[in-house]
Predict the 3D structure of the following.
Amino acid sequence: MMSDVAEYPAVTDAVRTVRSPAPAARKFSSLVTDSLRSRHARRAGSILVKNRVEADTGGSRVGRPFQRFALACATFALANCIVAAPKEHADKSSGAVRAAAQTVAIVVITLDGVRWQEVFEGVDAKLAAAHDLAPEQVVPARRLLPNLYAIIDGHGAALGAPGYGAPISASGPNFLSLPGYAELFSGRTVTGCDDNQCRGISAHTIIEELSAGTHADAGEVAAVTSWPEIAKVTSYAGADAAVSSGRHGGSHREAFARDAEGARLLALAENAPHGLGDPDFRADSLTADIAIHHLKAHAPRFLFLGLGEPDEFAHMNDYGGYLAALRRADARLGELDAELQRLAQRGTRTALFVTADHGRADGFVNHGGAYPESARVWLVAAGSAFQGRGFVAAPSGRRLADIAPTVREIAHLKRDSDRAAGVPLMELLGTSTL
Ligand SMILES: [Zn+2]
Ligand SMILES: [Zn+2]
């Protein structure tokens, strides 16, 4: 992210030609293992009053299934859909229509700059020694990331593990943060955002599409990030989404203060002292607090959580700090997964994606176009929308751009036919969702 000049390298034509490096095969014994424009300049106080009233009447909760059904109708363009009530359709129509009307909860989490090496092989013994870490800190991946592995081993899937099919990579050519997030949100390999100084994105995003027709102040589509710059690529034309980026950024951020606890957490982060990296960077623990509370209290249909501390520590060449940030992120991942499992038990169609915006250079500290090996990332997915379990092999090279098309399938949005669009990850979805 912004703490290191390596995020802003001059890009040569030579590195621009690098598309999908094939990382060297490895042994895997451990593996068997607004900038967005605010269109509603309301104050948090009025929002709180409004939502207290809604909470008392229950109006907002009752109305939501119908709003969602209307949105599903619009995106599917089904004949007669608009005049029919959801129950009527569910009783007599196809499974696809029933699924379209079903409530969804999709959560995407990114751990900025976290390498596939730690995710799949655990703590790097050489790096640990070079950084004077105690030998007992050198642990396999399952001990480093117990919650992530509870998902993979129990009810989810990992894609891109060495020895299991083709890798998943950022498309680059600059393997930097904003281009990675732009690819993730748009589902395109070409996004108009080539470095961290890009001014925005040239393609629509799933955040825009999923939030169309919703009330941003309700936070039904939400993004919460530690690094403030991510807000720039959440949408092309503005979204009806609630974004809280960094300690003070993001449009419709008041949506996170709909209840007293949400308001407290938002204010706590606003008033926190400057920590890592960018001046407005928000500590991951506070970012995660806001996101987890929002998921539990308001069950948004889409939530993005962008954690940034691992990359900050890596740029400081602090391997111990990087590992500690990774462990903290894993704990929060467990909380989010537990909430999604609870929602799934209630009939919500759930999907959890955990990934990274880019990998790292072999030397650990840097990443970018000058380090083609930093293209490689990883993906863990779980939830009732998926059939994939354990270590899943991709039939061909996958990209960050394939995640948004997978979200589109799950949310029954129209497929993106652009030539730069990714493809749904059918090895995770199985066939029953189509
Ligand atoms: Zn970085
Ligand atoms: Zn990054």
